[in-house]
Amino acid sequence: MSTQRAARALIFTADDFGLHPRVNAAVERAHRDGVLNAASLMVGAPAAQDAIERARRLPSLAVGLHLVLADGPATLPAHEIPALVGADGRFGDAMAKDGCRFFFLPHVRAQLRREIRAQFDAFAASGLPLDHVNAHKHFHLHPTILSMIIEIGRDYGLRAVRLPYEVTAPAWLKPWIGLVRARLDHAGLAHNDYVVGIEHTGGMDEAVLLDALAALPPGVGEIYCHPAEAGEGPVTPTMAGYRPVDELDALLSPRVAAALKASGAATGGFAAVFGQAASPRTARAARQPGAQPS
């Protein structure tokens, strides 16, 4: 994949694909009828197989791997990675503590490496082309995790990684983001220049998208969100404060589609935006908002 950046391009991505059937239905609808270009798949999540089946029906949906290494289910059995997960097979959400363990403890790093490879394996088993990789809660900002993604990803055709840099990021974070950007560049991996979605996570409604589209910086942007269809209760307890239906409505909004068109930005998944040379079977063509998949 070329890493040359378009003058202005946008990737609309839905995270947590596979987490719940309501999420999967929203992704399908937002891609068919709205501006959504891509989705990031949680391969160990309860509705992952449903997500994979929907993605197979949507050849123009660019699907990537959403690595889960915090606050979610692992892919390997708990007895194989006891230093990473509880007896229920789930990662905890003590990311600062776990980050220190990943960095300093060799036996924890060995289990982490096996789990990351297992998630890449599970994605490969889906038969879906790998458009990109990112991590749940942006845990790939951790240097150990990023190193393993770069190293292991080479075996699976990894070509693009999300750079979780928002222009409103605090000043103290910018040097760290610069290091991540430099490592991705050195590895020859394509990445976006900025994201929209951190400051307003869980609340990426129409107003937020319209404001973002009215002030796009140059380069490649990724607008990511967490849409879901309406239903009883939150998708997960940790997302109780999210407004996923509002996010779905925003992706389907004619006003958002019109603003995107007026911006003149090219759209598509990472492969389309960065000009991946793919076979017809795996090609991801950039779409106009609201276009039907081929």
From TrEMBL:
Domain of life: Bacteria
InterPro entries reported in the protein's UniProt record: Glyco_hydro/deAcase_b/a-brl, Hopanoid_biosynth-assoc_HpnK, YdjC-like
UniProt entry keywords in alphabetical sequence: Carbohydrate metabolism, Hydrolase, Magnesium, Metal-binding
GO molecular function: deacetylase activity; hydrolase activity; metal ion binding
Keyword Chaperone: no
A Pfam family matched in the record: YdjC
Cofactor: Mg(2+)
GO BP, sorted A to Z: carbohydrate metabolic process
SUPFAM superfamilies registered for this protein in UniProt: Glycoside hydrolase/deacetylase
Protein name: ChbG/HpnK family deacetylase
Taxonomic lineage from the root: Bacteria, Pseudomonadati, Pseudomonadota, Betaproteobacteria, Burkholderiales
